[in-house]
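chain below, 142 aa
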Amino acid sequence: MPYRGAAPAINDLIAGHVKIAWLGPTATVAQYKEGNLRLLAQAGAQRAPYLPDIPTLEEAGFKGMVLEMWFAAFVPKGTPAAIVTRLNAEMANALADPAMKESFNRGSMETAGGAPEDLGRLAREDSVKYERLVREFNIRAN
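prediction:
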């Protein structure tokens, strides 16, 4: 059942109005660490460093189930390669900064970077994967 955000979903989960929820780490880790929630699995390919005791979906028996959330910066098609290269280098520098990494870690997120081509490949692969999942599970928009 869709919710209007993680906060109402967590409130209903803690209150016992719902028995299970699929929520991101930013919303759940603090409640888990306070003992208010039990985490069953995480959706990444590997265990997150801030949740080393929580298995991945793969480890929990859901083979091939990797559902990672990511954020990225995009520019319009046709942006000159020199600008893309410079933006990528500046972002890589920012993501490598220990203060930036710590800030992300406090929000239960990890920093990553890479070549623009890697991001393009990831976006295309995820698009294919989620299209397949929508078909397989017969997911419909309300």
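The longest helix spans residues 116-136. The chain has a mean pLDDT of 90.
thats it, cya
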